[in-house]
Amino acid sequence: MKIKLYYAPLSPFARKARVIALETGLDRDIEMRAVTVSPVNPNADLARDNPLIKVPTLVTADGTALFDSRVICEYLDTLHSETKFFPMPGAERWRALRQQALCDGVMDAAVLCRYEAAVRPEQYQWSEWRTGQLGKITRGLAVLEQEAAALEGALTIGNVTAACALGYLDFRLPETKWRDTAPSLARWFARISERPSFKATAPAA
Predict the structure, then answer these.
(1) Which end of the chain is less crowded, N or C, counting CB atoms within 10 A of the terminal residue's CB?
(2) E strand spans, 3-97
(3) Which sign does the torsion angle of CA 141, 85, 108, 191 carry?
(4) Fold for domain 91-201?
(5) What pTM, to 2 d.p., does this model score?
(6) Which pLDDT score, from 0 to 100, does residue 1 have?
(7) Read out DSSP for 132-147?
């Protein structure tokens, strides 16, 4: 049985796994299955492998389904012999995991903002709640800007997640104009976005 990855082309979380697959050459051994997911319209095909009906979902060669981008990315990192995206225990590993957690939080907030505007009926939308989510994004990016130098160098799960988060903001929340307050982050993002793996997985309307 071939490994199968369910993904939504616009999902920043699924993009993390797709970038790692491309960077390591694992994409040649993975059946990439694009699906449509919605918080209000369950995808029956995906539900058979993931009761949470979320992407990404990875089904291993023995039929085990793995959920959550963090779990999937770490699993993929065990399947190749190149430099690991999850560093060995030590300061570098904790830095990468901290970056991943911070940027996953930014992506969570951004996706919730998107759902609030695009899925929730207008009469039920809560502007203060959305403002709160935008505040998480702003504070998260402020930390990334202060620590932009730590994103340089070899790819890790930390800087891969950071790039996926920034790409999603550009696509879904351009009104944040995050580059105005994060020039160092913007320069770093411009460079990493030139990698073929990021070009191939960039969200597009």
Answers:
(1) C
(2) 3-7, 30-34, 57-59, 65-67
(3) positive
(4) Glutathione S-transferase Yfyf (Class Pi); Chain A, domain 2 (1.20.1050)
(5) 0.96
(6) 65
(7) HHHHHHHHHHHHHHHT
